[in-house]
Every structure is written in C-alpha cells, then in structure tokens.
Design goal:
The chain is α+β, with helices and mostly antiparallel strands and 128 residues long. The protein has 2 helices and 6 strands; from the N terminus they run ααββββββ. Helices cover 27% and strands 44% of the residues. Strands 1-2-5 form a 3-stranded antiparallel sheet. The protein has a 3-stranded antiparallel sheet with strand order 4-3-6. The longest helix has 20 residues.
C-alpha cells in the first residue's frame, strides 16, 4: 500500500509540474478537463484501516472520454467535525474508453475516529 501511495504521489507531482509549466491557456484547459472528468470518478468506500489506523478510500475510475487516458485523483479525509486530517491519491493509467478500474487512496495520519471522504481534484490526461 505504501508503495502505491508513493507512486501515486509521484504521478500527481509530475502532472502538477507539467500544469505549472503550461501557458495560461493550458492551465485553463486542465481545469476544464478536471470538470469534465468529475463524472469519471466515484467513491465506493471510505474507512479507517483497523490495523494501520489510517484512512483509505476506494474509487472507481471509468474513462468516459474517447481516448485512452491516465487519471490522478486527490482525496481528502475529514474527521467528525469536517476538518481535513490527511489526504491521499489514487491513480490509474492507460484506461481505454469505457474501461474502469478500482483504485485506492491511502491517508497517512490517524484521524482518531471515523472519517468521511471527499474528492478534491481530478486530473485526466490522454495517454501519450
């Protein structure tokens, strides 16, 4: 799990680095693409792991676009009061049109109780 979270975080860093280097129009295009990709992500589970005491979320990512795409999904884990305790990243690569994948986002802090999950950001980009 820790390796998957590290790889997902590296993927998110790469996506953000590319977005940060794009001209202003490119950044708007990424924001527009994230809005369009919102329908591609569904939270299917959100719970605190009994052993690690860290929260985890399972997301179903379905590619509704016409091209094979990669996804990076940022999840916020909130405590009972709605305060963000930690966040995690789920990633899926080379999803063909209409293909789906179940991926997991792992938090790295003990929330000291139950959590709720919220999708914070979605990056979808065509596979090169």
């Amino acid at each position: 799990m820790r390796i998957r979270a590290t790889v997902a975080a590296a993927c998110l860093t790469a996506v953000l680095a590319v977005a940060g280097c794009a001209p202003a129009g490119g950044v708007r295009d990424l924001a527009f693409e994230a809005d369009r990709a919102a329908g591609d992500v569904e939270l299917t589970a959100c719970a605190v792991d009994d052993e690690l005491h860290w929260p985890a979320a399972t997301v179903r990512i379905t590619n509704h676009s016409a091209t094979t795409s990669n996804y990076v999904v940022q999840i916020a884990f909130l405590d009972r009061s709605g305060r963000q305790v930690t966040e995690g990243v789920a990633a899926a690569s080379t999803l063909a049109p209409a293909q789906d994948a179940l991926e997991q986002a792992q938090g790295t802090a003990d929330p000291n109780g139950p959590v709720s999950c919220r999708v914070v950001d979605i990056a979808r980009y065509a596979t090169p």
